[in-house]
Amino acid sequence: MKAYLKYNAEINRRGENGFWQLEKDELAIAEFAKEVEAQSLKFSSLEERLRHLVDHNYYYNLFEQYSMTEIEAVYAVVESVPFAFQSFMAISKFYRDYALKTNDGAYYLERYQDRNAIVALFLAQGNVDMACRLAKALMEQRYQPATPTYLNAGKARRGELVSCFLDEMDDSLNSIGHIINQCMQLSKIGGGVSTNLSKLRMLGDPIRGVEQAAKGVIPVMKLLEDGFTYADQMGQRKGAGAVYLNIFHGDIVRFLSTKKVNADEKTRMKTLATGIIVPDRFMQILENDEPFYVFSPYSVHQAYGVHLDEMDLDQMYDELVGNPKVNKELCELSARELMTQIAITQLESGYPYLFFKSNANRDHALKALGSIKFSNLCTEIMQLSRHSVIHDYGEADEIQLGISCNLGSLNIVNVMEHQNIRETVHTAMEALTTVSDMSDVRNAPSIRSANRRFHSVGLGAMNLHGFLAKHGIPYESAVARDFANVFFAMVNYYSLEKSMLIAKERGQCFEGFERSEYANGQYFQPYLTRDFVPRSEKVKALFAGIDVPTRRDWARLRDDVMRYGVFHAYRLAIAPTQSISYIQNSTQSVMPVVRRIENRTYGNASTYYPMPFLSPTTQWLYKSAFDMDQKKIIDMVAVIQQHVDQGISTTLFVKKDIPTDELVQYFAYAHKRGLKSLYYVRNRTKPNENDICESCAI
C-alpha cells in the first residue's frame, strides 16, 4: 500500500485523546506531493512551459490574446496567494481528475496554480484585469467553476464548458427521433440530458384515428436509456439522462413502476433517472382525499388545441374532468396511494424526483414569456422552455428553446472571510457570462438558440454547513437560517447588479426583458417592503464590516434595472457540489453533512475526507443529516429559495425504516414551504449509490 493511503486511512482511527488522528492526513498530503513532484515535467521558465504546451497542442494559443508581460502578471497573482491543499482528498482529487497530464499519462503538466491561471486567462478572453481578478478568486477559493468548465478551459483539445442540458419532446415521431438523436449527441460529449415526455400520447391513445395504437411513454424511455448507454463518451464516462412526466398524464402509474426493484425487465429503467411534475392541484387532491383523475394528453390537445403539459392545471383540472370530449379515468391508485408508492419507490431506488411546478412558476420573473415545465438531472435548473416542431425532410424545422446548465459556486467560508461578497459575485458572473458566450453546441439547436437569446447562468454556493460549524452555529438553528437569509439576499442583489451592468455595457438584455417582472419592477417588491439584514447578535457580528444592502439600495437597483435592463434571463441555481467541493475543502452545496469523516472508494482504494475545520469542538456541530429533523433542513432550503430565481438541489435523509406516511408528510411540508423540487431520498442502507450527479456536480 502506498504510504499516503496508509496515512490517510489512519485518520479514521481514534488517538489517545479519543479524537481522530487528523494530523496523519498532513503526512498523506506530504507523501502524495512527493509523488507529484517526481512525476511533474520540468521547464526552465514560465515562457518555455507555455510555449511547449501551446506547440504540442495541450493549451490553446493564449499568445494570440495576451503578451508575455500580461501572462506573467496573471501568474504573479496566482503565485502571490498562499495556498496549500487542506486534505489528502483535495490534493489527490485535483491531480488525478483535473491536472493536465502528458498524452501518455506519465507526467503532470500543471500544478493547482497553473490550472487556475489558464482557466482565468481563457475565461477572460484577453481582458487582463478580469484574468487577474478571476485568478485571485480561484486561488483564494472564493469562486469555483463547475467541473466541465474547470476541467476544459484553456485546453487545445477541450470538451464543452457545460455538461447539463434539458429539452422537451413533442407528440410526433419526428420529434421523438430528433430528441433521441440530440440526447445521444449531447451524451457523446459527456452531457447529462433531461427530457420532458409529458406531451406524448398515453398507452392506448389513437394514432390517425386508429384506437389503441399509441404505445405510451415507456418504449420511448427505453430508447432514451439505450441511447445514453450507447453514446457514453467513448467508454470514458457513462451517459446520464432523466425523464419527467406530469402526474396527471395517463401513463403516470406505469411511469412510476419503471423504477421499482421488482419491475418487469421489459419496462424497468436501470440507469435512466425519473422525475414527476406535480402541480398544486394534485397536492390539494392529496390533502383533501379527492378523486384523482388522469388524462389522455392526445384528447386534451384535440379538445383545446393546447397540450396538457402547457395548461395551468391548477385552473384547468376541474374543467378537464367535466369535459366529455376529454378522455380521462379515475387513476388506478388514489392520490394518497400514488404518493405512498412514490415514497416506497424512492426508498428503494432514490427515484422519482419531485418537481413542484406551481411553486417554480409562482415567483417566476419571466412568466409572461413562458412557463417552467420540468427540471434537470439534479433538480436545480428551472427555466422556461418551448418544444421545437420537427417537420419532414425538406421543410424548415421550428426550433424553439431548450436549456443548458452553466454553473459555478461560491465557497461561503472564504467569501465571508475575505469580506468581499460584491467583488466575488461580480467576478463569478463575468466568468459565467464568458462560458455562456462561448457555448455553441451545434448538434442541439434548441439549446443553442436559448443560450444565445437568454444568456442564462446558474451561480450557486457550497460550504454552508462548514461555515456554520466553524462559527459554532448548529445547522438546524434559527441563527443558521438568519445567516443564510442575509447571505443569499446579498448574492441575489450583487448578481442582479452585475447582470444590469453587463447589459448597460453591452447595450443588450436577454430577449423578452421588457415583458419580465424585472422590467416593470414587480420582482423587487419583497426587498422593498422589508430589510434582509441580520437579526441575531451572532449574525450581526459575522457581517460586521460588510455592507448589507438595505431597502434603499434595492430601490436604486430596481431603478437601474428598469433603465438599463438585465443581461441574464436566469442567474442563480444551487447544484449538488461533489468533487470540486473536496478540492475547496468544503461541505457540499447547502446541504448538511452525512458523516464527520467521509469515505469514498476509487478503484481498489478508499480515501477518507474529514469535514473542514473538524476539531474536538466543532465535531458536535457536524450532526449527521440522518439525525436531523428533516423539516429543519427543508426550512433552511425554504429561506434560501426565496432569493434564488431557479432551484436548489435538495436531498432528504431518512432512516431505513421510516414509515411511508412520514416520508409523504415531508413531501407535503416541502411543497407548503415553497420548495420547487426534491432530489434524492437517501437512507442509510444506500449511502453512496444515488448521490452523484456528474453532469451538474460542481
State the low-pLDDT regions, or none.
686-692
Secondary-structure content class: alpha/beta
Shape category: globular
Helix content: 40-55%
State the strand order across the main sheet: 9-2-3-4-5-8-15
N-to-C terminal Cα separation, in Å? 31 Å
How many DSSP H or I helices? 27
Mean pLDDT: 95
User: How much beta, percentage-wise?
Assistant: 5-15%
The CATH architecture assignment of the domain at 164-344 and 355-362 turns out to be: Alpha-Beta Barrel
CATH fold group of the domain at 164-344 and 355-362: Anaerobic Ribonucleotide-triphosphate Reductase Large Chain
Pfam families: Ribonuc_red_lgC, Ribonuc_red_lgN, RNR_N
EC number: 1.17.4.1
GO molecular function, one term: ATP binding
Family: Belongs to the ribonucleoside diphosphate reductase large chain family.
Can you offer a commentary on this structure?
By secondary structure, this protein is of the alpha/beta class. Among the domains are: 39-140, no CATH class; 164-344 and 355-362, Anaerobic Ribonucleotide-triphosphate Reductase Large Chain (Alpha-Beta Barrel). It has a seven-stranded mixed sheet. Strand 4, helix 11 (252-257) and strand 5 form a beta-alpha-beta unit. The longest helix has 29 residues, at 478-506. It is globular and about 80 Å long.
